[in-house]
Design brief:
The structure holds two protein chains of two kinds. Chain A is of the alpha+beta class. Chain A is built from eight helices and twelve strands. Chain A folds into two domains: 207 residues, no CATH class; 93 residues. In chain A, the strands form two sheets. In chain A, strands 1, 2, 3, 4, 5, 6, 8, 10, 11 and 12 form a ten-stranded mixed beta sheet that branches. Chain A has a two-stranded antiparallel sheet with strand order 7-9. In chain B, 27% of the residues lie in helices and 19% in strands. Chain B is globular, with a radius of gyration of 22 Å. The chains are: A alpha+beta, B alpha/beta.
Chain lengths: 335, 321
């Protein structure tokens, strides 16, 4: 039991994950990953090699004292700290994740700052928390001046992207995604559940969860990091396939100077996906046991892994077809 | 992912625990000029300290709930800002004067160890753990008034701009202590200064805050304890301060160095420094696992320990003049 993880129980947890391709030509090895993620001199970066390469920074805190966003316009002031951490999967996908939890009620005055610092990642409301309104407000995004967890996740990501280890030459084009989540307590006796997973515009995804009361918010954040990672992979690979013209390429307008560029455009477009993305699919790799079943729901509908396998198969088929010299092809490669 | 068959040690956080006393009692904090003032100055100091040491022991015994309180004493020598003489000359003198007053110095520390403890840049690590107290209206951005190398207990007074021609100068606005009770006691602490050559000198209050965290058993480096007492086995003391271990246990039967609470008996000229220490401690996020270990251990012993780290620190200021 961590200090502050105990009573009063958190009745709401919230976070935002930013996911992007590491802007470096080569994936980082474990040592470089530890350097990138070493946000604090005195705390270790957690490094793991099974079932895939993964590094996670220590949590850092940001102090907040502001209203919580709410759907019904009530402005509940809250004070505390938001935790944020960064992670790197296979030296290739960078994520920053900020999260906090809120107890049902707090005193109606601000306490000395030392009180909040021994409860990392807890934001205490003044008075009683209008839970449902705040949960909706958090997912919808608040007004200017309301607690902005995305700002904290984004700030950490920006800080990491400026790291001198990164040459700013990503191997493929991709866009970062945002996944914002809230977790409310499940009914007593019920297991965790996903109430809604929404793909909104502007690369924003929102997830609304129910979790048993004793669930650690860091574990929920871990689950959402995993969801965000795989959603980003799908989004990125879908976009790669979306952006190319399948079928036989028209002959180049002018002779290309290097052998490298002699490859058909389809191959040129798909190759980076094979080099850098296809091996990253591994749902539930680091999700707390208690929360792992939540993946099953998404596998059922919309079927994350089903879609991924179809995409991977398409990419492989295309590359196989292009590996056959043209005169021997009975059919032209089409989807 | 607990109780799993497969484990990776690099993937799991691990934080070593340290043994803990009930109270860490500081008998003095001497600068080189204190030593320069001669043995009478030391004698005078220990005579003043003794009654308060007795009082602190009584309070600690009350808190220990009937059991023998574990109390360790310590003494801090400044070798960071100025250097004078040698350990071989000064330490025996110090111990003789303490003994004369009926006091035992269990542990002796060098102030430079609060900047770099052996190979660990401990001051820099603590500076990396500062989480500034957010003024009302902070919604996720870093406090805008952050001044590198300074830490305040509230919002600074806005910077006055030079008035433009035909315009009135902006009226002065007061600074504001965030935790003020009606009126502010605003404090802005200089944490370090850098020379043009890039050398950083940590300020006295900052090193004193590190010293308090060490005494509270809350410092870790990559999960390992920092400032571990070194037993004193040699017959004498070295000629050079750098050869003296950062923290030495002089009394082999001493209770553990780190403790649930600290008390420092100091002359009242330390009051502003220690106010600054409180401002720093109040905005330092200590290793959560180290904090949890202290909470768990004290609960098992049924010893009350304040939540907030700054509240675990206490002082007796005696009339210094």
């Amino acid at each position: 039991m961590r200090p502050g993880e105990s009573a009063p129980h958190a009745v709401l947890a919230c976070g935002e994950v930013r996911t992007c391709l590491l802007p470096a030509q080569q994936a980082l090895d474990s040592r470089a990953a530890a350097q990138l993620l070493g946000l604090r001199a005195d705390e270790r970066v957690l490094l793991s090699e099974r079932p895939n390469l993964y590094g996670r920074s220590p949590d850092i805190l940001t102090g907040v004292d502001c209203p919580l966003p709410s759907a019904n316009g009530s402005r509940v002031r809250a004070v505390g700290t938001v935790a944020a951490r960064a992670s790197l999967t296979e030296g290739r996908v960078l994520q920053s994740s900020a999260y906090f939890r809120v107890p049902a009620a707090g005193p109606d005055h601000r306490r000395p700052w030392g009180h909040y610092l021994v409860r990392p990642g807890v934001v205490e409301p003044f008075g009683t928390l209008p839970r449902e309104a705040v949960a909706q407000g958090l997912l919808a995004g608040g007004r200017h001046g309301d607690l902005d967890v995305g700002l904290i996740a984004g700030g950490l990501l920006t800080r990491l992207l400026r790291h001198p280890l990164l040459d700013q030459r990503p191997p493929l084009k991709s866009r970062p995604t945002r996944l914002r989540w809230v977790a409310l307590p499940a009914d007593p006796g019920d297991g965790p559940s996903i109430e809604r997973f929404t793909l909104a515009e502007d690369e924003l995804r929102t997830v609304r969860l129910r979790v048993p009361e004793d669930t650690r918010s860091a574990d929920v954040a871990g689950l959402c990091d995993d969801l965000a990672l795989h959603d980003w992979l799908l989004t990125t690979v879908v976009r790669i396939l979306d952006g190319i013209r399948l079928g036989s390429a028209p002959p180049p307008a002018r002779p290309r100077p290097t052998a490298e560029d002699d490859r058909p455009p389809v191959v040129r477009a798909l190759r980076p996906a094979v080099d850098h993305l296809l091996h990253l699919w591994m749902p539930r790799a680091r999700v707390a046991e208690q929360l792992a079943p939540l993946w099953d729901v998404l596998e059922e509908r919309p079927g994350f892994t089903r879609q991924w396998q179809t995409l991977v198969q398409r990419i492989r088929d295309q590359l196989t077809l292009h590996a056959i010299p043209s005169p021997h092809r009975e059919v032209e490669p089409v989807p | 992912m607990t109780d799993a068959v497969f484990r990776e040690t690099t993937a799991e956080p691990r934080t070593q625990a340290v043994p803990l006393s009930h109270l860490s009692l500081e008998l003095g904090h001497f600068y080189m000029e204190d030593f320069e003032a001669g043995p009478e100055h030391l004698r005078h100091h220990f005579d003043r300290v003794r009654p308060w040491v007795e009082a602190a022991r009584t309070v600690a015994a009350d808190r220990a709930g009937g059991r023998r309180p574990r109390i360790s004493t310590c003494f801090l020598i400044d070798d960071y800002f100025t250097r004078f003489s040698s350990p071989a000359e000064l330490v025996p003198l110090l111990l003789a004067e303490a003994d004369r007053a009926g006091l035992v110095v269990d542990y002796l520390a060098r102030e430079s160890a609060c900047a770099d403890a052996g190979k660990v840049p401990v001051a820099e690590a603590v500076a990396g753990r500062l989480v500034e107290e957010p003024p009302p209206g902070s919604y996720g951005i870093r406090p805008p008034a952050t001044q590198t190398g300074w830490l305040a207990n509230g919002e600074r007074s806005p910077v006055a701009r030079a008035p433009q021609a035909m315009k009135k100068a902006t009226a002065w606005q007061p600074p504001k202590e965030t935790a003020a009770r009606r009126h502010s006691v605003f404090l802005d602490v200089e944490l370090w200064s850098d020379t043009p050559g890039g050398h950083r000198t940590w300020s006295c209050p900052f090193l004193a805050a590190v010293w308090q965290l060490a005494r509270l058993g809350l410092l870790r480096n990559q999960g390992e304890p920092v400032l571990v007492p070194h037993p004193h086995t040699a017959s004498g003391f070295p000629e050079d301060w750098d050869e003296l271990p950062p923290l030495i246990r002089l009394n082999p039967r001493a209770d553990p160095f780190a403790a649930y609470r600290t008390c420092s008996v100091l002359p009242n000229r330390f009051l502003p420094v220690e106010h600054a220490v409180r401002v720093i401690l109040d905005q330092t996020e200590v290793d959560p696992e180290a904090l949890r270990q202290v909470t768990e251990r004290s609960a098992r012993e049924a010893v009350a320990v304040p939540d907030s780290v700054a509240d675990r620190v206490s002082y007796v200021f005696y009339a210094g003049a």
